[in-house]
Amino acid sequence: MGSVDNLGSPEVFRWALDVQPEWPCSNAIKSGRDAAHQWALEDEARQALDLLPSEEREKVLRFYHIRDAKLSLASQLLKHCAIARTCSVPWAETIISKDQNLKPCYVPANEAENQIEFNISHHGSIVALVGCTGKDLQVGVDVVQIDSSKDIPKVRQEGWSSWVSTYEVVFSNKEVQDIISWEPSEPLDGDSLLKAKLRHFYAHWCLKEAYVKMTGEALMAPWLQDMEFRNVQVPRAAGELSIIQEAHDWGEIFSDVEIWRHGRKLTNVKMELQAFRVDYLIGTAVSSLAASLAPYKLLDLRRDVYSAAETG
């Protein structure tokens, strides 16, 4: 982790964690004012919460929905784990701060300590974190779960063009037209066609979100519509590939997107779009073409995270 390649650019490590198998709720309560507190009484949840500082623990337990509490808890644990492992500091000293853009960061106690750049995202039941040693690179990540069953009724009611145009504040005019007019390479119809078009839409969304998070700005950045992605391809899920993928988790990777801003092609950012399971896309953005991207690693809480806390 955090190794330096032959070009002198640090390697970017990439993690993913599925919260559902880690903390399956044993009770029927999924949401409510006290739902998170009741969930926190379960052994597995309590063990994880005990690893957080009191203020972070209280923030997790304020969520109305248990699913959101789980994602928040996992996000905090992965941040602490990344700092502990990359910067070689005890778990108790992995203090999470915020920079001028309110982006989570780690400020070493002294200049001699290792530094880390990281970014985190979560959606569905997946939390993803990317990071690297030092502060020479900026990194961004976005994970999106495509819920066709939720989107298709809205698309049918509004029409595809109208539904896409709802998001025109996020995309350039060319991107909007590309998304509206895009057709899959194989003939499809009905729900199958809409699912393919939605997957292409979210490929655009995921790439743009990862890029914006790399810069530290929000999706309402004033230059958002002046930046566009061209040649966006949709990576296939593992189950769609002819080769056997371990546990059918990791699918295709797409990395040939073109980034244009104010009419000029950018050549100093490396981007990658990774298909995960059937319905997830994970976008990565790094502020150097020389950066080496490690493959995503699906973490196990006890093996990978708790061990870091115990070592510290």
Question: Concise description?
Answer:
This protein is α+β, with helices and mostly antiparallel strands. It has ten helices and 13 strands. The strands form four sheets. Strands 4-5-1-13 form a four-stranded mixed β-sheet. Strands 6-12-11-8 form a four-stranded antiparallel β-sheet, covered by helices on one side. The chain has a three-stranded antiparallel β-sheet with strand order 7-9-10, covered by helices on one side.
Verbal overview:
This protein has helices at residues 19-22, 35-39, 43-49, 54-60, 66-87, 148-158, 160-165, 173-181, 190-215, 301-311; strands spanning 11-18, 96-98, 104-106, 116-123, 126-133, 139-145, 227-230, 250-254, 258-261, 264-266, 270-276, 280-286, 292-298. By secondary structure, the chain is of the alpha+beta class. Strands 4-5-1-13 form a four-stranded mixed sheet. The protein has a four-stranded antiparallel sheet with strand order 6-12-11-8, with helices on one face. Strands 7-9-10 form a three-stranded antiparallel sheet, covered by helices on one side. α4 (54-60) packs antiparallel against α5 (66-87) and α6 (148-158) packs across α9 (190-215). The longest helix has 26 residues, at 190-215. Mean pLDDT is 91; it is low at 1-7.
